[in-house]
Amino acid sequence: MNKVLTYIELAQEEGGRILLGGNRVKVEGRCSGGFFVEPTLVEGLNAACRVNQEEIFGPIATIMPFDTEDEVISWANSTMYGLAASVWTTNINRAHQTAHRLESGIVWVNTWLNRDLRTPFGGVKHSGVGREGGTEALRFFTESKNICLQF
User: Are residues 4 and 38 both part of a single domain?
Assistant: First the structure.
C-alpha cells in the first residue's frame, strides 16, 4: 500500500493530474486492518516517466492520447518490463497485428485477467522468469540434472 501511494505522489510530481482515486481506503468489518488503495486514474504523464516505466502492481492507470498505432506500440515496448498487455478494438485483424507487435508475455484482447490455467503465463524482458501453467510449467518447475559417468 505504501509503495502504491508513493507512486501516486510521484505521478503528481512528474506532472500528472489525478482524475479519480489516489487515496488509502479504510473499510469496516473483518478487513478493517487491510491495506487498500482506491483505483486511481492519472492523465498528463509522458511515456518515459517512472509511473509509466515501472511495475507498480497497484490500482493505477494512466491515460495518454496518441496519434498513431506505431507511436503507442513504441511506448508500450519502451519499458524494461513485459508481463501483460491489453488491446481494445472492434477490428480483429488489427487486434492480431497489434498483439504480435507488443513485447509482452500475454496480450489480452477486449478482456483483462481472463486466463485458462492450462496455458502458459509469464513475462518477457525483466518481468519474471519462465512460465507457469500448461506444459511450460513442467520445464519451469523441473530441476534437470546431468550425471556423466565414465567406466
Answer: yes
